[in-house]
Every structure is written in structure tokens, then in C-alpha cells.
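Pipeline run #58 for the internal structure catalog. This entry was flagged by the ingest filter as a single-chain record with no existing model, so it goes straight to prediction. Upstream metadata was stripped on purpose; only the residue string is passed forward. Reviewer on rotation: M.T. Logging verbosity set to normal.
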Amino acid sequence: MSVFRRAAARRGTAADWLVVGLGNPPERYGGSRHNVGAEATERWASALQCDLAVQRREHARVGETTVGERRVTLACPSTFMNESGRSVGALVRRHGIVEPSQLVVVHDELDLDPGQVRFKAGGGIAGHNGLASIADQLGTRDFVRLRIGIGKPPRPEAGRKWVLQRPARSDAPLIDAALDRAVSGLEVLVRDSIEAAMNVANARRRGPDPHPQ
């Protein structure tokens, strides 16, 4: 039986949306580029006054809240990135997520510049170990992704070290602003639609007006 069929068999009121922010354990890797997905989810939880409590069975810190009329579960796996699927599978079953389109995975993206944010429905995994683990566990890649740009390392072979480091001083404010835009996009997504959320989160970062009045 698939993860989603098992989720459909649960008792009680199911969540309308499951938002999962990816990262490595924050005790060691908090603030690193690889943890921006978890940071965005934590920031939204804080804005919603939704406490994320440790749930051992789901291998995550989890909170439940409502946004408008939507029931939303927010979670940050406590596993390492490459084991994210173990947590997400348990979360899908526990919170009654029956369609991949109800799952939003928030994660770092090397192929986007710092400051860029993009929603995407389904697609490839682009070598991201967290996405690969989730796709393998769920048997599908059709979940929604919210990609937060961290930029590429100066040398391709430095990728693993790059994602585990904190952003450069010049990139930090860009990524911080991107986290705020990610939160705004998530709010619009659960209240309205992914198309509306794309208009908010996918907007290009604006620089100074070249022709000030």
C-alpha cells in the first residue's frame, strides 16, 4: 500500500497542507546554506505563533495551525538531509495527506542566485539529497517545491562543503530577504493557489531605481 493510501485510512481530521522545511540538525548546522528551508518554515511558524514540538514518531519538530479556513501542518525533520524521506513519509501518514500536491517541501537551491525564490510543482531533483530521499519514500516527485537560492560554489567539486557553510557576508541579507518572501508565498499558497503564490515569491529581487524621482 502506498504512503498516500495509508494516509487516507487515518482517523480524525486531516491537514489540508503539509509544509516541510529541509535541513540538517540545527545543533551543528544551524545557519548553513543547506538549512534555509528549515529556517523559512521556522520563520513562518513564528509569525503564525505555531510552536514546533518534537514528535519522535515523525522524526521532526511539528506544529499544527489554521491559515484562513485551511488546516496546515508545519514540520522540520530532525533527520540528516539525506534521510528526509523517513520523516516526510511518517508526516504524510500521520496528517492524512492524500495527494502529493498537498505537500510543500521548502529547500535550498544551488541553481538559483542568493535572493531568488521559486515555487515549482513536481519535476526533477537536481541532485538534491533531501528531495531524492523524499521522492524515493513517497514513490513520486509530484509534490510542490519552494526553492530558495543559495548560489553555486566557485568550483563544482566544492558543492558539499559549500552547502554546509554559512552564507558569505554579501549573500546573507539577500537570503534573509528571500526567507521573508518565501513566508509570504507560503501564506498565499495555502489561502489561494500555487499560481498566486508564484506571483509573490517568484518575483525577481529588485535593486535601486535607476531613475529616482
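catalog note: The first strand starts at residue 17 and ends at 21.
catalog note: The CA atoms of residues 115 and 178 lie 5 Å apart.
status: ready for reviewer M.T.
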